[in-house]
Amino acid sequence: MLVWLKKLFPSARAIPDELWRHTLAQYLFLADRPAQDQARLRTLTAQFLAQKQFSGAHGLVVTDDMAVAIAAQACLPVLNLGLKLYDDFKGIVVHSGAMLARRHVVDAAGVHHFYKEEIAGEAMQGGPVTLSWQDVAASSEHSARGYNLVIHEFVHKLDMRDGTATGCPPLPTRQAKTAWQSSMQAAYETFQHQVVMAERFGAEMPWLDAYGATSPAEFFAVASEAYFVNRSRFVQEFAGLKTLFDGFFKQK
Ligand SMILES: [Zn+2]
User: Fold this and answer.
1) Cα separation of 147 and 218, whole Å?
2) CA atoms of 22 and 37, how far apart (whole Å)
3) What spacing in Å lies between the alpha carbon of 215 and ligand 1's midpoint?
4) Most exposed among 21, 120, 174, 234, judged by the fewest C-beta atoms under 10 Å?
């Protein structure tokens, strides 16, 4: 039950020590952050919880543990940017596991295709973020691979601040945008090539999730997951993106 959260709303109160300790212990990439980052993350997480509305799908009860775990991971990308970047939505919908999303696409011939796709999460422009709890709970064991569902979906939210997700979030100047696009495009094309070589010609699969090769927006989300949960390997694999991401996320 959302026992503590109900008491917390509508103003942000400090997250109880035990609950915060438990969250850090569950997610080692949070436990590994410097103490001062953790303290700021704890404050930001409490503010996030006060501003957002969690709901469980199909009768799922979102506990305090679950809400704090999701909020803390969601706040990591905006730790030095502020919660304002998430002010275009309120809802976070939690499903117990993967969900089926209805899709509708119109192909080049004008034929409408309706189908269902299994997804672990989804971010809607100006709308809620949907997450599979099963995948959130597995975040710690997946961080060696650079996976993190919550960071993935919330980075899409950052990307969507200026329209549909394109792989380029809002940047202060045209120069910054050009620099971003050229670095990301080069890294994306190299990654796409590595995935094609692995899938078609038996070369070794690259470290990052191959899903990142599907579009520049997915590449940005997938690369950001790795940047936040396995920085050392990220730097090894994507040396060219480190400075770019450090600058955008204002991280050191
Ligand atoms: Zn995505």
Assistant:
1) 13
2) 17
3) 9
4) 174
pTM for this entry: 0.92
Residue 236 has which token pair? 């090894």
CA of 123 from ligand 1 middle (Å) equals 8
Cα of 119 vs centre of ligand 1, distance in Å, is 10
Please name the residues in contact with 142: beta carbons below 8 A apart, sequence gap of 6 or more. 148, 229
Task: Determine the 3-state secondary structure of 182 from DSSP.
Answer: helix
Q: pLDDT of 106-161, one tens digit each?
A: 888 888 888 888 899 999 999 999 999 999 999 888 888 899 999 999 999 999 99
Interatomic CA distance for residues 95 and 93, integer angstroms:
7
Concatenating the DSSP letter of every residue in 186-222 gives: HHHHHHHHHHHHHHHH-PPPPSS-GGGGS-HHHHHHH
